[in-house]
Amino acid sequence: MAGGATTTAMVIAAARAGGLGFLAAGYKSAHTLETEITAVRQASIPFGVNVFVPNPVPITDDVYRRYAGALQAEADRFGLTLPAHPVDDDDAFDAKIDVLLANPVPVVSFTFGMPGHGVIRALQKAGTVVVQTVTTLPEAELAAAAGVDMLAVQASVAGGHSGTFSPEKMPAPVPIGDLIGQINAGVALPLIAAGGLATPDAVTGVLTAGASAAAVGTVLLRADESGASATHKAALVDPARTETTLTRAFTGRPARGLHNGFIDRFEAIAPLGYPAIHHLTGPLRKAAAAAGEADLVHLWAGTGYRHVRDAPTEEILRSLAG
Questions:
Q1: 16: how many CB neighbours lie within 10 A of its CB?
Q2: pLDDT digits (tens, 9 = 90+) for 142-168
Q3: Are strands 48-52 and 107-111 parallel, antiparallel or unpaired?
Q4: Which controlled-vocabulary keywords does the entry list (predicted)?
């Protein structure tokens, strides 16, 4: 889970439970990623790294400035200066691939889009299993043709950003079991199911549907090893937070989180535009989280968020295994 929720301690704890934890490369420098890989490697455990593939959604200066203007009053409350022009970057993708090739890890997963064939082949040659996140059968077919080793199949109910290749047009929602069945029938690759899996029955269901493994995220946000902000953790158990919403208001790319005031006020006017909108709202979200103002924070969560609990990661994962 990018943004700090997944820590090295959580990855190590996942291995103790018999699982495979993934470090989040997103929004980190290549140096920070390398440092975290070194820390986890010292525990002598299998683990993976998840990488954002550059798949920018362009935005014009005029559209960007209009949205920035709408946010300015909230930024003023915290004494923030918002970026005057769209900030576009590739999240240091090439530098992170260099780290992963120089210091190979057991598994690398990709999301938001597919890396080039050369990247896939180079990682495999280095001994790394390559996993591609997909949200539809056509995406799965593209990934299989590119030669990846496994697929992470993400349902629309998953928390955080959708891994869709086409953020400007979200695929129709399909229950995770049905999606696993569709992709399993069309692609001969092992599947990891993800999205809304927060109970032993849900995990059993996707394994029965044909998945080789289940991936969880939201259910670990209040785990002892979680790096999620106190504001985020509190919102997950706030009885007033009664639903999750797919929104582009925070980052310019569809992502699911707890419905809050920011979404109420800005979703209708929020443009697509990633990573420009992510960089625009980032300082405001960080300041609001520090101030405990949950209505201005991206409270990423999947539909199983009511099952979060305060416990060690190892205990939560073992309970899901049944």
A1: 15
A2: 999 999 999 999 999 999 999 999 999
A3: parallel
A4: Detoxification, Dioxygenase, Flavoprotein, FMN, Monooxygenase, Oxidoreductase
